Amino acid sequence: MRDAVETIRRISGVNPLKCMKCGKCTATCPAYDEMEYHPHQFVDMVVNDRLEELMASKGIYHCLSCFACIERCPRNVKPGALVEAVRLAVIRQQDQNHLKPQDIPALLEEALPQQAITSALRKYRR
Prior knowledge:
InterPro entries: 4Fe4S_Fe-S-bd, 4Fe4S_Fe_S_CS, HdrC_iron-sulfur_subunit, Helical_ferredxn. One of its GO terms (cellular component) is plasma membrane. By secondary structure, the protein is an all-alpha fold. The protein has helices at residues 2-12, 24-28, 39-47, 51-56, 68-72, 79-93, 104-107, 114-124. α1 packs across α6 (79-93) and α3 crosses α6.
């Protein structure tokens, strides 16, 4: 599971060890009442290798991705980015989003910016 935690950290670009557990992220969360785990708990679960428990939680899908937690964090920990990374890890674990380069031409539209194509390939190929 240690590899999964490192993957979450890499995907999110966040250092969860900077969290000082002040709870400001949770206090500003508009989805607080709907979540099984709250933003500060997400961070703690990643730090303490409780990723399987977090990935199994329906609470990661209750996050609105409004990033209010990111704005309030005094240490720039970005709990919302961690949630997004955990969601992506769940999808990858379920083998639902592998995109092979040879599949791309069938998906292209003329109006689609090349940056979107490159971004999708980076996000969904592993």
